[in-house]
Amino acid sequence: MSSTVFLGNLPTWVTADDIKAWLVADNLVADSVKVIRNPETQESKGFAFIEAPNEEEMNLIIRRFDRAPLEERLLRANPAQPPRPKGVVRPAMAGPGGAPAGAPAPGGDRDRSRRGGKKHRKAGNAPQSAFAEELAKAL
Question: What pTM did the predictor assign?
Answer without folding.
Answer: 0.61
